Queue: 3 jobs
Job 1
Amino acid sequence: MLKINEIFFSIQGETTYAGLPTVFVRTTGCNLRCTYCDTTYSYYEGEKQDLETILKEIERHRTPYVCITGGEPLLQKEVHELMSILCDRGFKVSLETSGSRSCKDVDPRVKIILDVKTPDSGAADSFLLENLNFTSETTEFKFVICSETDFNWAEQFCRQHDLFEKFCVLYSPSYKEIEPRWLAEKILHQNSSARLQLQLHKYIWNAEQRGV
Ligand code: SF4
């Protein structure tokens, strides 16, 4: 059984899968409390569901893309079984995690999106460095940038761990806190190798809506 906050069908707004019709499985519970969190409803709300019920709901939407998100999905061990079954059934599975829990047992067929928390998130130092050992060429790193301090911190983190050389690194402006243009100029002027990412879904629907 997994405690699930919601399962919904929408357009992927982030990562290199941005724009693709995707089924989102949002698990309940998070060990962090980021200052900009837009899914506070996922902290406690949800219902326990067995894997067959979850799989049936996913398959109903007839898209190959499934994103496991939260909350923090890795707080619930059974999420590993769910992701493996989805891979066995031919789905392209991505996992969004803060990297504050070990990714050791994540099925290697899953695309891991590591959302490394910056100082202004209020959850800096939550990233487990051991997770750098459980990456693959499909892994992507994401940083939500809230300020110049965050930008400089992210740049240093990426350079220190050679992330730009090995992975796709995404910088997102914190929604309504940082202008996309400010971040674009910062990336250009600082000669960063990060890829600017706008949270597409927030421009299509308003922040409270998640799609259909
Ligand atoms: S990790 Fe995600 S769900 Fe958890 S507090 Fe931060 S933004 Fe919210």
Note: The mean pLDDT is 96.
Job 2
Amino acid sequence: MVKKTTLQVVSLGCSKNLVDSEKILGQLPSERFSVIEEGRGDPNIVIVNTCGFIHDAKEESIDTILQIIEKKKKGLHEKVLVCGCLSQRYLDDLRQEIPEVDAWFGVSAANDLYAYLKETYQNDLPQRYITTPKHYAYLKIAEGCDRTCSFCAIPMIRGAYQSASIDSLTEEATILAGKGVKELLLVAQDLSYYGYDLSKKPMLAKLLQSLIRVEGIEWIRLHYAYPNNFPEDVLQLMAENPRICNYLDIPLQHINDELLLSMRRGHSKKQTIRFLEKVRRLVPGIALRTTLMVGYPGETKQAFQELYDFVEAVRFDRLGVFTYSPEEGTRAFNLGDPIAQAEKNRREEAIMSLQASISLQINQAKVGKTYRVLIDRVDGKYLVGRTEFDSPEVDNEVLIPDQKEIIPGQFIDVLITKADEYDLYGKPLD
Ligand code: SF4
């Protein structure tokens, strides 16, 4: 019997990168390669799928590559391969600076990596090796982005928007459901644009209509909607169909009109507020998640205060904050980086501390109510799960005293008995 080569993908950055990593792993023939998950031993080959979105992510990617190179020098790995956003963006520099890497690939690495490993495809369908818990998986519905946000390097790295077809996504969802996936997390740089490149009209609702018919999929969650032109029929479908989680992740970045203009976001404060009101009117009880950016050039104290007041007024259910980092090649790069990192951090902390108090109030209002919870894992004395209002990794969790007969991947009804800022506690209903 041929001894299998062991292989591991270290996936950095966002969930879209994770899907790419899963596709890379899924395309390697299992009779030749066996996958070792992170932390479970030292594989022959390590593939680092890098992120190049912002300064911190780039630093993390380079540190990770260097740590793995050190292990290679000690003989723990045979080959180190690097792919993803960072290597797409800085290929020539990286090649020179880290010659110990055996091969470099860009963002569409799966085919090239496959060729590098001297194998041929056996199956036209996109195969994936799922690295998330068995019951949920990300479904990347498009690649690239057609917007021109001034601070963002993604269109440069990933190219123009390219929607995957409804047929191929439905097929992928069917394969995932067959492997035990119950929750699909739809991701793209910009969900709102889905379909425009194919048919000059929005097709997200049509895609959802197809996905809700896939047997075994019980929850579909939407990540990364752009506030402009978000299709209204999706909101109607969300309100009507229990399989589409009442959840929307809309990165807004800022609310001050001058900054929105400089960021080239294409929407104003007034339009943003109207859009959020419409979402809440059409889908009562929806959980809204957003991501904001502080410290963008020109963010005066007043502009920051406006953002702070907006967060206080809108009361998002979930919220994350980035500090601005200038990226070469973007339009905003020429504006410099006039706000000190310490001040950016202070602004980030101010918003996160405001959000903690909002989140606590929202959570406390859930005590005494019953929610359907999907169990993700067992952690010590607790079963840990989520409601439809929470996405894995980034949102709140529900902690339930362990009951041996309940297992990860199971849906149960839970009565909420206690709440803190980011967690709920509950007991299963009989
Ligand atoms: S919508 Fe804007 S921020 Fe998001 S990927 Fe596209 S250009 Fe970047």
Note: The CA atoms of residues 276 and 314 lie 9 Å apart.
Job 3
Amino acid sequence: MHSKTDAILSPADDLRYPWESHPGPEQVVEIAPGVLWIRLDLPFRLNHVNIYLLADGDGWAMVDTGFGNDATIQAWMTLFEGPLAGKPISRVIVTHAHPDHVGQAGWIVQRFACPFYMSQVEYLQGVYHQNRRTEERIVNSRLFYRRHGMDEAITEQLLGRGQDYLKKTVPLPAAYRRLSDGDDITIGTRTFRIITGAGHSPDQVMLYCAADGLFLSADQVLSKISPNVSVWAHEPDENSLGSYLRSLKSLADTLPDDVLVLPGHGVPFYGVKARIKQLSDHHEERCQMIAEACKDTAKTSAELVPVVFHKHKLDAHQTGFAAGELIAHVNHMLAQHRLTETLDPDGVLRFKAA
Ligand SMILES: [Zn+2]
């Protein structure tokens, strides 16, 4: 899940993009020896997701699987009968439980009878998404949005969205193998270090091959969009932005600057440290906008959405992401004691700069 609400264009001298164009629908591009890049369509404004195949003995280890719709199955059939014919998928690794990444895991694992890898939290999160929209959870979400000052119409709009989205996953494989932060995993001739990070999703898996300078960043570090970092009704006080910023800092400390970043969306790039700085700065700018807006009068999250997202015309899908992202900034600023909150008699939370 991503906000397309903020396209950050990077100065050309900080980031380098070795591939000017991305693979077409039936194409496979080799970006390093034994590393293939495939791009699958998504039916959103963020219109694609990247899949990487890593040489793994006689087959390919697949990293992420695409969205859980028929079009993606058709795209895979074309690839399996075309450029990928003759070499099986040896295992499937999924970076996180969002449907554009985990969507076809069940189908591919069944087709190739291969092992399936996720982090424990992401696997359980996937199970959780498949059981969403129970009556209790809808009631809980409604209270959450009303408490943040969303009016009835917007709240119902937010509750309606996502119905089609997070469930767009074919049934998850019934068993998985666990990837944990700090593990090493051997894939073909390469060893990858597993790095996990929170913020965009609770325990997203990234793969780092130090020997070859390859970093599969999933959605944690994207080149031109800022990954969605939100708060959801099931954990209303979560400081997901704090977790995300901590993960970025740890990546900046861990990774050398010359790694080739292979992101979940967009095109591969060099310049990971510059990009991490831009992403961190971007969130700090938003915090400052919020602090400024709450300097004299206390405001609700609903009132703060247009302060931060004033440049954008938002549809329902984006309003949902914008609300969740706004609350992530508010919760982070509360944790940093930059805001104070009051629950007013109308049942709505209001925030004031500390
Ligand atoms: Zn994604």
Note: The mean pLDDT is 91.
